[in-house]
From TrEMBL:
The lineage of its organism: Bacteria, Bacillati, Actinomycetota, Actinomycetes, Kitasatosporales. Keywords: Ion transport, NAD, Potassium, Potassium transport, Transport. Residues 1-117 form the RCK N-terminal domain. It holds the Pfam family TrkA_C. Residues 137-218 form the RCK C-terminal domain. The keyword Transferase does not apply. The keyword Endoplasmic reticulum does not apply. It comes from the Bacteria. This is Trk system potassium uptake protein TrkA. InterPro entries: K_uptake_TrkA, NAD(P)-bd_dom_sf, RCK_C, RCK_C_sf, RCK_N, Trk_Ktr_HKT_K-transport.
Amino acid sequence: MRVAIAGAGAVGRSIAGELLENGHEVLLVDKAPTAISVERVPQAEWLLADACEITSLDEAALQRCNVVIAATGDDKVNLVVSLLAKTEYGVPRVVARVNNPKNEWLFNESWGVDVAVSTPRLMSALVEEAVSVGDLVRLLRFSHGDANLVELTLPPESALAGTRVGDVQWPQDTSLVTIIRGTRVLAPSLEDSLEAGDELLFVAAQAREEQLEDLLSVRREDA
């Protein structure tokens, strides 16, 4: 997979290193000469250019990329890069970094963003996820379809504890994607049973989140 990363700062370089270790082809783009540190990520391609300029993106051959990551420290730049990548080059997947949480509402399909990553939101979500049982925690937002990656730890008193996955009437536009049980990561089948303490990860439409939380947190009659 070919990935272009706009922004060769610490965040961009870190992402590039991870992708390269996983066997992907990576291009780092930055307009600041001081950011071009080939020796730090020698396996990557490097391009000194302004990622907001069409000529630069032509040079980067963005049309060949499977993914574009807008990872600069400037939200305006990240939005422009995302929009150009999606509308001018038809990049299948665009991931954008949100630096200021107040700007998060802009990072959606209208600006070409498929996945918006807000570090402050993600950190707070991970804190909530670590201490909350029975509360739905939003981990990540996907722009397409207005869907989110959400997590809930099944409380012991939940009426669904001991129920087969296939017997649960899940809300519409909701999909259980992973069960984390202790140290195990399970791809749920219809025959798997839910257990108290399971961390359940869903991709769910935002409009269904409250309904999903109510379903999972409902108490047993004898609780």
